[in-house]
Design brief:
The N and C termini lie far apart (98 Å). The protein is elongated, with a radius of gyration of 27 Å. Helix 3 packs parallel to helix 4 and helix 5 packs parallel to helix 6. A six-stranded parallel beta sheet has the order 2-1-3-4-5-11, sandwiched between helices. 46% of the residues lie in helices and 20% in strands. It folds into two domains: 129 residues, 3-Layer(aba) Sandwich (Rossmann fold), CATH 3.40.50; 129 residues, Response regulator (Rossmann fold, 3-Layer(aba) Sandwich). With 308 residues, the chain is an alpha/beta fold.
């Protein structure tokens, strides 16, 4: 009897131990797989030679850190071919999502296609991709921003005044849309006597503005598609002794906001790059969690004028 009792106790202990064992990998619920996996996001920035995109990247880095995301950010240096190679490298590194800030809205198609072929979801920020499958686009309404700038210029200089336009990189959606918004108002109430691309660059903004002034001395206002060009234009205007010309930029970078508050620049359209970066990381995480995300995520604009 004692022998059978010992056998029974041994059997109960064996069964209890078996129940507490970790189930084999094949038997685990598929929903557990990847639950603790670190999300890896690749971020291709058009250029880090522009304060706006530096701030955008910082916003993404902060949100990624707070969200437990491993972020790999690379600088395309305004080179569409390099951007494609960068995105392909990010795919090889096993990113779960790729965020692209296109150097050129048409040329970025090859980078988006590479991600599509590898089944890596794509998010675009600030500038659109004109082809390929993009899960979500996060940006301000550039057309609305261009209209805001044009309306304010008209308010300051009056209808029919001579104005110049410094355009961004040809082919970028930001340049195209900001220009469209500007002309929606300017073509009806202002006289655009000169417009030329300065590629979102401060040094080019200076040289282009110098050239415009040589041919058009009676300019009352300048709209630049970004603050870097606006600040370059301010230098050219100062050298020419034309400090009364109204200059409106776009982005609300630190230098531009200071120029506005100092009275050297009339205004800048703020589109909150840090928030764009934060939203990109939040959206990337939601995608990896299988959540439905909006195809377009707008970021509110604000016209920054001098504090009174």
């Amino acid at each position: 009897m004692k022998k059978w009792l010992l056998i029974l106790v041994a059997c109960i202990m064996f069964i209890t131990a078996g129940c507490s064992m970790e189930p084999p990998e094949w038997a685990k619920d598929s929903s557990d797989k990847g639950r603790n996996k670190t999300i890896k996001v690749g971020f291709s920035v058009s250029t880090l030679n522009n304060p706006f995109f530096v701030t955008l990247k910082k916003g993404a880095e902060k949100k990624a850190k707070d969200s437990g995301i491993e972020l790999i950010a690379v600088d395309a240096q305004n080179d569409a071919a390099k951007q494609t190679n960068d995105v392909e490298d990010l795919i090889q590194k096993g990113v779960d999502v790729v965020v692209i800030n296109p150097t050129d809205s048409d040329a970025v198609a090859s980078a988006v296609s590479a991600a599509n072929a590898a089944n890596v979801p794509v998010i675009t920020v600030d500038r659109v991709a004109n082809s390929g499958k993009v899960v979500s686009h996060i940006a301000s309404n550039n057309i609305e921003g261009g209209q805001m700038a044009s309306d304010y210029i008209r308010e300051l200089v009056g209808e029919g005044a001579n104005v110049a336009e410094l355009e961004g990189i040809p082919g970028s959606s930001a340049a195209r849309e900001r220009g469209k918004g500007f002309h929606n108002v300017a073509d009806k109430s202002l006289k655009v006597v000169a417009k030329q691309a300065a590629d979102f660059d401060r040094a080019k903004g200076l040289s282009v503005m110098e050239n415009i002034l040589q041919a058009n001395g009676d300019i009352k206002a300048v709209f630049a598609h970004n603050d870097e060009m606006a600040l370059g234009a301010l230098e050219a205007l100062k050298s020419a002794g034309k400090t009364d010309v109204v200059v409106v930029g776009f982005d609300a970078t630190e230098d531009a906001v200071k120029a506005v508050n100092d009275g050297r620049m009339a205004a800048t359209v703020a589109q909150k790059p840090e928030l764009i970066g934060e939203k990109a990381m939040q959206t990337a995480k939601e995608i990896t969690q299988g959540k439905k995300v909006d195809k377009s995520i707008p970021i509110e604009l604000e016209l920054i004028k001098k504090n009174k």
